[in-house]
Design brief:
Length: 202
DNA sequence: GGAATGATGTACT
DNA sequence: GTACATCATTCCG
């Protein structure tokens, strides 16, 4: 039982978790915990790898050419989710950042599995812990994130939410180029925890 | 209307 | 390291 907050209600993520541009939020989200309450149970993982997609000067950003039906939720308030389909098969999960309407987001690329490992195994059809959340589409499957989460606020009350890392924690972070893009491929907008074995790749 | 592409994962050589 | 599944979105004509 938690001694703070209302019973049954998890602590809300402080708004400061999402404040600022995608580059800053991408770094701040490292170490934060993503929690998913599915109908079949609860799963959670610590964010160890992110990528920033910027509102301007970034042709790899889905919002680069303005709002469309797909990227509409990217233009919502900071702290909401942007979930989209990729390659006809998979989905990726982003956290919207920046000023509302700017079209910035942070792609979450890998988690350290913390809770609900067996549930993740069933959803993923794999056994090895390393194979559960070490990629943007893998973690989406492991946490049962779906199109219904698109546009949802992640700041505390919903089935999908983020909890900030402990204040004062200063993890060592590596900045490098983003994965799987053809435009603006040289910008150092990918970030991961230097000491984490859970990142998708080095 | 039609064609190319994609913020990936998996299997195979 | 390479091949490919699979389809919504985007872009071109």
């Amino acid at each position: 039982m938690s001694s703070t907050g209302r019973p049954g209600r998890p602590p809300a993520a402080p708004a400061s978790l999402f404040a600022g541009g995608a580059r800053r939020v991408a770094r701040r989200l490292l170490g934060a915990v993503l929690v998913s309450e599915g109908p079949d149970g609860r799963t959670a993982g610590r964010i160890v790898e992110t990528e920033a997609y910027l509102a301007s000067g970034d042709p790899a950003c889905h919002a680069h050419r303005g709002p469309t039906a797909r990227n509409a939720s990217m233009f919502g308030p900071a702290g909401s989710a942007y979930v989209y389909r990729i390659y006809g098969l998979h989905r990726c999960f982003n956290v919207v950042t920046g000023r509302e309407g700017s079209g910035e987001a942070v792609l979450v690329r890998a988690l350290e599995p913390l809770e609900g490992l067996d549930l993740m195994r069933r959803r993923r059809g794999r056994d090895a812990p390393r194979e559960l959340c070490s990629g943007p589409a893998k973690l989406v499957e492991a946490l049962a994130i779906g199109p219904g989460h698109d546009g949802l606020a992640l700041d505390g009350g919903a089935a999908l939410r983020l909890e900030a890392r402990p204040r004062g924690a200063r993890p060592r972070v590596v900045a490098t180029t983003r994965v799987g893009i053809s435009r603006a491929a040289d910008l150092p907008l990918r970030f991961y925890l230097a000491d984490s074995p859970w990142v998708s790749r080095r």
